[in-house]
Amino acid sequence: MESTILSVAQGFNLKCTKSKVFKDKFGHVIATTQGSVRIQRVGSRRGQSQGYAARDNNIAAILFQHEVKEHLHNRGFAVDRFLISSDGMPFFKTDGVDGDAYTACYTQTGPNIDFTRGNGVLDVAVHIAKMHAALDDANIVATPTKKIGVGGDVAKLQETLASLKKKLLKTGRFSDFDMLFLRGYEMLAPHITTPDGRHDEKHICHNLLKEENIYKQSNRIAVTNFSETAQAHNLHDLAYIIKRYIKAKPQETIPISKILQAYAANCPKPLDEALLRRILLYPDKFIKVTIDYYSKKRSFAPNTYISRMQECLRVGTVLAESL
């Protein structure tokens, strides 16, 4: 693999200062004369094995992300821009046309945003609001809408969860996980509602605003990992930030209303608080953990599933009490 990464580096006209390739959670990092560079394969081999359509979709996503990053860079935002290969594209293909495609980006420096301390979440809300405003003015070729949270067959989900509850109550014998599910069902299931037309309003969103993708650099913020960037309602980004903030268990809790004010003051479009509330309360994690657990027959409840469900209930409780 190391030899492949080094050959890809040559395709980006990079001169390596060391032959060692370091692997991290995002890709492979190499040291070059221009700085530290992260190289990632576009999509998975499994996806690419499905034929040209899958590979073409991966490339289309990279070209879209490249346009988004370049637009933000030109507007003064710090992002992990794609390097241009010897082919003049923001990706490089090994072994010619049919080879695997790779991207290369300079790695970001500085500490990640820490949502457990201070006003970091307010700084991020302001920054993301300005990014949304900048992207709303961009002339970028659209991509399909990304389905987040409120997507999918809502009626079928409601029927599945109601059926699980009925089956458990009929048996009368509950595991620790069953008890948590029943408690969560009463609290969270009512928020699985059919989305209305307002969700169809399309913006360009990052869709992956985790703490590890947001860096503090002196007096500015840098954003990385645009792998999930696509069209979605901009309130999904704001909801994602708020959920990550609550999950971090901050030492000094900032009211959600203050986060909304910071965002609204820097985004020209009116903040639809009713819609944001529905996105925030939609229990996507609760649904995922429940389906994952009951899709297999289990003789006992693993601690990992119990802790995941407890976290779903904690976050759901905090959100419900704060909105």
Given as residue ranges, the uncertain stretches (5+ residues, pLDDT < 50) are 45-50
> What is the highest CATH level, the class of the largest domain?
Mainly Alpha
Which architecture of the largest domain would the CATH scheme give at its second level?
Orthogonal Bundle
Q: What's the helical proportion of residues?
A: 40-55%
* Domain module count: 3
By secondary-structure content and strand pairing, the structural class works out as alpha+beta
How many individual helices? 11
User: What is the arithmetic mean of pLDDT?
Assistant: 87
The gyration radius over C-alpha positions equals 22 Å
Strand content: 5-15%
Shape by Cα distribution: globular
Tell me how many strands there are: 10
Biggest sheet statistics:
5 strands, antiparallel
Q: CATH fold name of the largest domain, please?
A: Transferase(Phosphotransferase), domain 1
What is the CA-CA span between the terminal residues? Answer: 49 Å
> What is the chain-wise order of helices and strands?
HEEEHHEEEHHHEEEEHHHHH
Can you list the strand order of the major beta sheet?
A: 1-2-3-6-5
